[in-house]
Automatic annotation (TrEMBL), chain A:
Coiled coil: none annotated. The lineage of its organism: Archaea, Methanobacteriati, Methanobacteriota, Stenosarchaea group, Methanomicrobia. It comes from Methanoculleus palmolei. Gene3D superfamilies: 3.10.20.30. PANTHER family: SULFUR CARRIER PROTEIN CYSO, SULFUR CARRIER PROTEIN SLR0821-RELATED. InterPro entries: Beta-grasp_dom_sf (IPR012675), Mopterin_synth/thiamin_S_b (IPR016155), Sulfur_Carrier/Prot_Modifier (IPR052045), ThiS/MoaD-like (IPR003749). This is MoaD/ThiS family protein.
Length: 92, 251
């Protein structure tokens, strides 16, 4: 199945802003992001902590709806899904 | 209710074409609290002043440094070493003597924030850190006044308008703050996001248009793309969730 994965702001700088992934069936939201982020250690480290968990400020969206990081492992993707991952910015 | 003077009718004639003398009077009779006179607070306060927001309260604790000058356009080279509040007040008064600009040189904290905000009609978030933003969010919720949120980093920015009891609050949307850092920034980014916030303030006060309610605007200045993400209230939000369950004015 094909899903679109988009990284915003700093994540996009490190990992590329948008890609279409041909993912196997039963791929979870976590799997998708982890696989993509693994291509760049700094990008991976910006999203995941040393235990491999999502950093607590990371925001995950699936088809425009927020998915809590705690639910990302059991959120299975479907053909055509659009996933967005972004960090809030804090400067002013 | 203060009426417009002849000078004001003339000064604001081009925007009175947009929202009428009634709209302009609403701006004149409004008080807006701006937290921060830095990268966001500079363009926001300038544009709210020229638009004729009658009373602007601007709070900042810092002194102007040379490293501020690439983005904090209220402050000039000659202001290095001065308090930002003094520098801001001088400029805003020159820009528009018809509006009242009150500046407060203090650190916003839990003990003083409610008094500082006072009877303001809205709070503009022009801070550079999330702990203080959460405090502004809490006070906006308590006073039932809107919080106009904006934040930036590098070429990226975000903005949303929080209407307590109606929209997701800042905690619903950002339960955890990003890591602290000295953030990179080029002045056009807070300029852009500050204009989004100031536009929201003006629309809210005049009562026109459609606000960024439950919508997070994301600006990618590297690609020049604006996107938006739908926001939802978190029923278990520590700020706005509990009270809603107990018969608040939500949904």
């Amino acid at each position: 199945m094909k899903v679109t994965l988009r990284f915003f702001a700093r994540f996009g700088e490190l990992l590329g802003k948008s890609r279409v992934v041909d993912a196997p069936e039963n791929t979870s939201l976590s799997d998708l992001i982890r696989d993509a982020a693994s291509q760049n250690s700094e990008g991976y480290g910006s999203i995941f902590d040393e235990h491999g968990a999502f950093r607590d400020f990371v925001i995950l969206m699936r088809n425009g709806k927020r998915v809590p990081a705690a639910a990302a492992d059991r959120t299975l993707l479907s053909e055509g899904d659009e996933v967005a991952v972004f960090p809030p910015v804090a400067g002013g | 209710m203060l009426m417009l003077s002849q000078n004001e009718r003339e000064r604001y004639s081009r925007q009175i074409m947009l929202f009428g003398e009634e709209g302009q009077e609403r701006l004149k009779n409004a008080t807006i609290f701006i937290a921060g006179a830095g990268g966001l607070g500079s363009p926001i306060s300038i544009y709210l002043a020229v638009a004729g927001v009658g009373r602007i309260i601007l709070v900042d604790k810092d002194t102007v440094e040379r490293t501020n000058l690439n983005r904090q356009i209220l402050h000039y080279d000659r202001d290095i070493g001065r308090k930002k509040t003094a520098s801001a007040q001088e400029k805003l008064r020159e820009i528009n003597p018809d509006v009242a600009v009150e500046v407060i040189d203090t650190t916003i904290d839990e003990t003083n924030v409610r008094d500082l905000v006072g009877e303001a009609d809205g709070i503009v978030d022009a801070m550079d850190n999330f702990p203080l933003r959460y405090l502004l969010n809490q006070v906006a919720f308590e006073k039932k006044i809107p919080l106009f949120h904006g934040a930036i980093r590098g070429f990226y920015g975000q903005a949303t308008t929080i209407l307590p009891g109606k929209t997701a609050c800042l905690r619903c949307t950002f339960p955890n703050p990003p890591q602290k850092e000295v953030f990179p920034v080029v002045g056009v980014t807070p300029g852009f996001i500050g204009m989004v916030q100031a536009t929201e303030v003006i629309k809210y006060l005049v009562g026109t248009g459609e606000l960024l309610a439950d919508r997070l605007l994301l600006w990618d200045g590297e690609r020049s793309v604006v996107e938006e993400i739908a926001l939802e209230r978190n029923p278990s939000c520590e700020v706005c969730g509990g009270r809603t369950r107990h018969g608040g004015d939500a949904l």
